[in-house]
Amino acid sequence: MSGLRLLHTADWQMGMRAAHVGSAGARVRQARLEAARRLVRAAGEAAAHLMVVAGDTFESNGVDRLLVQQVADILASAQIPVFVIPGNHDPLVPGSVWEHPAWQRHPSIRILREAVPVDLSEVVSGDGVPRATLFPCPLFAKYSTEDPTLWIDPERRPGDGIRIGLGHGTVQGAPIESEPDYPIPRDAATRRGLDYLALGHWHSYASYPDPAGCVRMAYSGTHETTKFGERDSGNALLVEISAPGAAPVFTPIRTGGLTWKVLEPELRTSADLERLCEHLENEASPEATLIDLRPSGLMDPSDSALVDRIRTLLDARFLYGRLELSRLYCASPEGDVAWIEALPPGVARGVALRLAAWASSGSAPVGVSQEEGPDPAVAARALRELYVLAREGSAS
Amino acid sequence: MILLSIQVEGWRCFALPVALESFDAGLNVLHAPNGTGKSTLFEALARAFFDRHNSSGEAAEALRPWGRDLTPTVTVRFLREGHEYRVTKQFLDAPRCVLERLEEGSYIPLANGPKAAEQLRGLLLGSVPGHGLCDARHWGVAQILWAPQGDLALGELSEPLIGQVQMSLNAQLAAAGSGEVERRIEQLYGQYYTPKGRMKSGAQAPPAVALEAQLAAACARRDHVAATLEELSIASEDVARLRAEGDRLAAVIAETSQEYESVRHKAEALALLRSKVETASSRVKQLEAQYERLQQTANAIAGARREIHDASREAELLSARIPVLEEEEAGAAVQRAAAQAEVERAEQAGDATGLEAVADAARAFAETSRLLAELTKLEVHASEADEERRTFRRKREELGKVPDRPTLAGIRDTLHRRDQAAARLESASLTLTLKPAPDADPGMISAIRVLTGDRPAPGSVLEASPGGDPVTVQGAPEVELELPGVGRLRARGPAGTVEQIRKALEDSTRELERLTAPFGTSDLHRLEELVETAHDLETRQRAGETALKTVLAGFAEAPDGSRRTVLAALEALRVELAGQAARLETILVRHPEWRENPPDPEALQRRLDEMTASRQRELAAARAQLSKADAVHRAAQVALQRERSALDHAQVRCKNAERRLASHLEEDSPGGAQADLLSPAPDRDAERRAHLTRLAMDREVASERLKEAEGELARMSSGPDGELPDPALLETRLADLRNRRDRALQDAAHRQGELARLASEAPYSRLAEAEEEIAQLTEELAEERQKMEAVRLLHEVADSCRRSAFENVLEPVQRTASDLFHRLAGKRLGPVHLGGAFAVQGVRPTGVDSVVDLRQLSGGEREQLHFAVRLALARELARSERHLFVLDDTFAATDLERLGRIRSVLAEAAENDNLQVLVLTCHPEFYDEWRVAESARFHDLSGLLARQRQEASGTHVPSVEAMAK
Questions:
Q1: Confidence of residue B119 (pLDDT cuts 50, 70, 90)
Q2: I want to staple B421 with a disulfide (CB 3.0 to 4.6 A). Which of B262, B367, B505, B955 is the partner?
Q3: Is residue B143 a contact partner of residue B152, using CB atoms and an 8 Å limit?
Q4: Are B110 and B101 in contact (CB under 8 A)?
């Protein structure tokens, strides 16, 4: 297909903090750089005429300047012109990342510092490449309630060619948790007379068809997933527009390298725990996988060894693993209490029975009164400790 | 733990080595008389297990035998859990502790030094004090098992000991292994918490402490970089703001520059217009001035002309009236002169008689005559009084010196004292009287010599004759006579009193002479008469003086105010008298007839008064006439003067008007046409009026032009922008704006530098790292805290379970103790009651609801009760292991019958309750039953020591061998 091919990406959030993955933060940040490199390679492979970055290239203007240099180098490695607008995370303010001298050293990268049309024919040319104009909407502050695309004159001028908007903000109705920042109408592309409005801000892919069903504005999503539960992220969008007024054609390109998995298995028996162990042992590419394991159900203290094994697997094999046992309750006294019955009668057995009662109280159905006692999780932990002590005693 | 043997050396009373060996696993009796050293051995046993071998201090030094420099050493052999051990503990000198175990027939060291001591303490759960030697509180289970002398009652049990007993009691209900789990729980708890439940600190602190420290440090780093990030944001906003301010100011500067140029051009145009207005205004003013001046001149000429005409007319009228008025004034002057002459005549007529002078002289004559008479009378009285005064003074002077009344009283007193002394001397003197006998030898009495005496004086010779007058000699204090051919006759009285009286007599005599010498007599009566006479004369003299002063009172004061003496006053009286006499003579010289016929002043006065009244009436009438004439004359003068003044005024007005006309001509004559216009000449009046009309028209034209110029100026000044700004102010404002812009740009550049510095610190990246670390540490810390909470919970639940179990077995212990006590003391006192720490609370006799305190029991019953409790607990402790049970002379108050029961109980304990019993006593006969039954081993300490003394060779260690079983 002939026409203009642009690679749309956004929300690289370079240097973002990853407190939710603790010590794996540095590796997650490194993965975002690698994803950016993959994206640049993909642009070349897709023979894109240009690349647009729709804001939030950096998580903050306070990121390490070495990182700025690295990102500039990555973008410069693309053999096509790259147009970048500052987003709300890295707005164009004094002292911002955009003052770094690296941007001046790479002529192929244009940081769009003003809301003025850019004639793409000056940088994008070739056989069959239609004339086009870019309408950038750079941001100059972190928060605003103004539509950043408002400045775009909807009147199509003769020399505009394909009109492409590049903006960053919250499309009305987008499921973004924070309060609307830089609100953008759902029909902004139509209102502004644009053939395509490349958006950034939301980390998942989203598109907005006009009343005729033609999609002329979309979020590409972040190029690398940022957290557990983030859907449709880790991609870039290849957008092809044949002529002014023609419907854009989208091709998602996978760029993310990390896999973020939330596992919430329900355990009933020791066999379930063993199966979970096996699953984790067989997980592909664990070095690029982050696991949030939240088992629920019942666990006998005698299964402590298996729990320890899972913990070890998570720590050793995966990029990051978190094990949340708060919803995993100890087996009730009516359940498997063989190890307690094996304890010598007296204080030790009495302690085990009392702790087991408390530990299992957390699994009581809602509305059913629970035996008064300490935090069931603490009681369960104490019970496991007692189990270990008893086992050590029997071993010696 | 079973005791096998004990050996001491250099220990208190045991200087030489002493060994007690072959203890039986059942009953043992160690006996000896008091002071032999039984309790010393008991002490050595306890110190072998519990004390630090390197203890020092006074208490440790007391272990040495008195007066010897020996090293206290104790060696104990014992059995535990089937193994035989030996402990050797040496105190003070080269202290050491060695724990050995018998292995294959040889003692092999297990531990030495502090570790050995710790292991030994651990055997019986003992503890060690902070310093010094141990006491029973540190003995662990031995606190129950070993009863020191006289201290059978259990003291306050230590917490570990109570725990040990509880665990031991639990053990009977629990299978083997439960205790081990509990121990592991305690060990685990001990990894995190102190025995008091606090989290461990320092090197032994749990990992959570280090994690908390790391977390705090990470939080501090996070806060620091967060602040830096915030600072970066603020600096960025500052730079943006300052740049915007710079841009805004630049725009304002451009706008203000334009305004300045516009205002400057407009100001120049305004200046030109203002100049035009000013010129027009000057022209209008000039024309107005010319018009005003010419108008004023015309008015002045007309006014002067009217003035001259009016004043000339008035002068003519006045000149005609003045001669009439002059004639009226002259007539009034003549009439006034006539009245004046009449007044003078009336005044002169009053002085002609001279009667007033005669009346005055008559009054003076009468007055002077009266004064002269009075003064003469006064002078006579004064002279008489003066003479009398002089007479009495002369008589007093003739009387001479006379004592005053105090002196007279002194003389009278002295005389009285002298007379008294003379009388007393008279009565105190010896009086020796010799009455010559008729047949006395004259040779013997004719020349009697007074040797001592007062009267006659010593040395006097008294002559007596036979049958003649007696001869008397007085003296004091003695009188001595020499009788020729007979000898000396001496009479003596008391010497002291007479001498004093005589001295008083002499003193008073001399005083009297001194007092009376000035008056020429010492006769008191004469002196009194003189005093009275002198007093009378002096009184009369003073009366004369008083009378004189009274007479001369009017002359006592001198003209200058000072007081005169009497004589001066008298002289003044006489001078006044002479003066009045002279005045009278002067009057008489003028009126000699009054010498014979004195005048009547009052009649003369009446005549004078009548003449004076007549003259006054005439004078008043003349003066009234004069006043009237004078008023008429003055009125005529005034009228004449007024008319003359009016004439002068009219003439002056005329001259002034003429001068004004002349002066107008002189002052306002610039010459030419203007001079003609200003001339007062009547032929110029028409021309002047014409010129005035021209001037008025010119002024109207000039005013119109001025209004036009002012209107234009007002239009320009109040244009669309209002008041035209001051260009200088605009220039100043422009400079200020440029300064502010430059400052804003400089500040922006400065903040930009700071911004670059802050950005170079990569605060967000550091923040991300810190927060990730915090998240990691928080997770780890939560894990650790949960584990610690779990361990604490485990411990608390174990403790709770143990307490519950203890409470379950306390009752059996009480029951056992009660059974034992009932066997010893009968059931009368009821069951024994124990507290939570096995403290004996008392007993509850049958039928009594409350527990009876121990103090209500007898001494023997208390001993038996404590024994029962101690033994009951010991039996529990010995369930898992055989233990040594020691009683050191503990039954001082128990009777023999109950002692026999105690023997039985002890025998059963040794037989059935896993206890090795050792009784230390000075009454081995109490345990003869055991000896007979050969159920106990007896150790005779005194016998041992006796043999030792016999065999003391320095190398042999005597020991008590088994004597009976």
A1: confident
A2: B505
A3: no
A4: yes
